[in-house]
Fold this protein.
Amino acid sequence: MQVALTAEGTYPYQLGGVSVWTDQLIRGMPDYDFLLVALVATGAEPMRWQLPENVSSVQKIPLWGSPPSSSAWPRLTRSPVGPMLRELIEVLLIPPTVAQDRFVGVLYEMFEYAQARNLSAALASEQAVHLLSNAWRERWPDPASASKDLASAGTKSARWSASAANVTPTLHDVITAMQLIEHSLRPLSHPPVRADVVHAVTNGLGILPALAAKWRYGTALIVTEHGLYMREQYMHVRRAAYRWPVKELLLRFLRRLCAVGYDEADLITPGNGHNQRWEEMLGADPARITTVYNGVNPADFPTFDGEPPVATIVWVGRVDPVKDLETLLRAFALVLAQMPEARLRLFGSPPPGGEAYLQRCVALAAELGIAGEVTFEGRVADVRDAYAAARVVVLSSITEGIPYTLIEAMACGRPCVATDVGGVSEALDETGLVVPPRDPAALAEACLTLLQDPGLRWRLGSAARRRVLRHFTVKRATSAYDEIYTVLGSGGPVPAGGRNKHYDERHSRKKDAVSMQWSDGEAAPPASREEDTQLPGELAERDNALSPETAR
């Protein structure tokens, strides 16, 4: 059986958790033939992974650089493009909670057009610019009256919307917005992949090649999200360098696109219950959702015979703002004040272009006076060496799915302290200590609790290992996808979905803390915890192929 995997900015051209998962899936299912469709920035990215033997092809789709060659399109009678462009713009200028059927219709029309003619040229045309410019001029609220009305509401979200209303779209905004839409839709211009099943390992832009396969060949479609694509975009785009009109249009486009992904999917397989909750709030049908946890091979992460002689806290991961190493460093300064013999070792490197954040963390360690007790050790060849160096493994992230660092450390029997974000508490359950994000004092207190209690470390580490063996193994994950691929690939009924009972029981009493408010009253789905909406400016959960900065 042939399975096409579609992704944006990850395997096989980037490292990270999604890439680890993809490689595990392919290697764990040697009887399947995998075809990779990878959305990348420019097409010049080197391959970072050695491909398994059961990968038969890799199709690279650049979102930046030169558009797809016009020589790929047959010569057909010229069809008018104006109505299609006008419908696209009109549907993007109304709230995405209505008229979704119109967006699906125009997206399919653009797919058909892209397969026969030059969609990139149409979206970048002077006609498209004029249509958006005129539509914005007609519909954008008068800045003075809109600001006054919104500000009078008195709420923080209303005042924020009032500030946005003061930004009148410019010609530069129009051109920028159409450029982003054009680059985003380039995957529709490539030949659809042909396989028995198409599995999108993200939503958003990564769903486009999968939709093309379903629309052209009727291929069964699976959508898996490790992080929440739309949630990440709300946080990332809100702080991007674009002006507000561009941000609003792009967010509406991406939200509608994610809704198409959920609606067209035969099955949605989130990596944790936290994702499942968001997917349902964004319109996914609960009956077509089945949670499939990430996993590790326990044989690759056996327990250790003992502990290091020094009281050592270890962090492992990608050096990136979402990992919030600054909070970890501030917490360690508090630990050091009470336990001068403690040490902090950080294993990991920044993604390409992210070196400035590493330097900022090094500078912060010096500023806090802890540079002599903290070591930045780069990426380690064998990650078990990092866990072997730990008495306590710490995770300080402000957003996660179910991170491999956590379940690897748990498999090794190392006790963990982690922030309560995403699927972290779902993974740890009662086998580790969970603290609020961006809270150095709480993080320090939890680390000290474990460092000062050998018996507690042993009990939690042993329980963590048992939990991984029960719930988080590669074998469990690949067995689940083996069944899913077999059923969907043979045209059988969709496997029964349903609620994630463990997640529901743990989180049923938690209140929604924040609701992000966008212009014209459109509200983003509520977040289960504060960290879901308040993040540092450089947020980038993964290397985003859509970002033009990655093309420089």
Summary: The mean pLDDT is 86. Residues 298-471 form a domain with the Rossmann fold fold (CATH 3.40.50.2000). The first helix runs from residue 17 to 27.
